[in-house]
Amino acid sequence: MKISKILAGMSAAAIVASMAMIPASAAGTKLNVSDDLLAIGRQSQDDLFAIFFRGDESEGNVVKDGISDITAVYGASFTIKVDNNDWNTIGGGGSINFNDTKNGWNAKDWAGGSWVEDDKPKDTLCYTTDEEGTYVLEYKSETPLFDAADDEEKGYAAVGINNWAADLKGIDVVGVKVLGADGNAIYEAGSNKDKKEVQKKPVAEESSSGTDSTASGTESKKDDSKKDDKSSAAATSTAATSSKPGTTTTATSSAAASDNVAATGATAGLALAGVALAGAAIVISKRK
Fold first, then answer.
1. Is the distance from CB of 253 to CB of 161 less than 8 angstroms?
2. 11-25, 34-48, 54-68: which range is least confident on average?
3. 241, β-bridge pairs
4. Which residues have CB under 8 Å from 19's CB, separation 6+?
5. pLDDT (tens digit, 9 = 90+) per residue, 79-107?
6. pTM for the whole structure
7. Which terminus in the chain has less CB density within 10 A, N or C?
8. Would you say residue 286 has pLDDT above 60?
9. Are the CB atoms for 203 and 216 separated by under 8 Å?
10. How far is Cα 160 from Cα 175, in angstroms, rounded to an integer?
11. Which three-class secondary structure state does DSSP give residue 257?
């Protein structure tokens, strides 16, 4: 076989391998939002859902009369459903978001399943419920989360949720509550569940069910690579908001994490290409 054919064959194999790695790793988990919530909110991208209580109606649904005084908002909770085995072995995380014209993107991180760390508690708590695989994510502030706006330019104000986990089968968002100063709901939609105890890390041997996982003090061990993935996602939980009233431009952490994964895949692909070329060089030297 000619040397040129050997070089071409090895290089092509390396490139194909590198391209195959990127899309497989960069796939994210979709937030599956119930129809009744979608009817009042917006899902501009797969991993982000928000309900607007103030904004430009021409750009989508705005629950104009949902909350008469937006400065009364002190928190929110979302009821979600997941595959409990995935939840307890893979884990999940994201943020509850309070987004408005003046304050911009205000994200409160949440973690569930094997991502829960007792030594690193989140502002947003993950509560269990009486239904296996159903959880309540809740954030409550001591101060109002939105500011009053003048009558001429009210801008936008939205409560939302986003997801960072890339390997879960799915997260179903089925209910939402907006909370007042006393922690009670001042707005409610969907199918909400009563919260029970705060979720603890599941015991490894009981990973198929989170029902009794808090009975033991044992903590499941997590793979270091999962910790790194989660830290990377949390570190990139940022978003930019447009100053134009009624519009938001968000760069969620899951998208950033996907970019990082894609970059890693590309780097690995280049490494493979280098190995292939090195191998070809050896063949050339031997043929001499």
1. no
2. 11-25
3. none
4. 269
5. 999 999 999 999 999 999 999 988 899 99
6. 0.64
7. C
8. no
9. yes
10. 12
11. helix
Q: Are 66 and 53 in contact (CB under 8 A)?
A: yes
Residues comprising the chain, all counted: 288
Coil, helix or strand for 46? coil
Pairing of strands 48-54, 75-82: unpaired
207 and 89 in contact (C-beta within 8 Å)?
Answer: yes
Burial 275-284 (b: 16+ CB within 10 A, else e): ebeeebeeee
- In the chain, what's the furthest Cα-to-Cα distance? 83
pLDDT at 266 over 60: no
Number of H helices, E strands in the chain: 5, 11
**Residue environment code for 28-53, b if the CB has 16+ CB neighbours within 10 A, otherwise e:** bbbbbbbeebeeebbbeebbbbbbbb
Burial category of 104 from C-beta neighbours within 10 Å (exposed 0-12, middle 13-18, buried 19 and up): middle
Q: What is the mean pLDDT of residues 229-248?
A: 38
- Assess contact for 90 and 114: CB atoms under 8 A: yes
Q: How many CB atoms lie within 10 A of CB 66?
A: 18
- Distance separating alpha carbons of residues 200 and 185, to the nearest angstrom: 25
Dihedral sign, Cα of residue 19, residue 24, residue 26, residue 32: positive
Say if residues 35 and 190 touch (Cβ distance below 8 Å).
Answer: no
124 closest CA partner among 137, 114, 134:
137
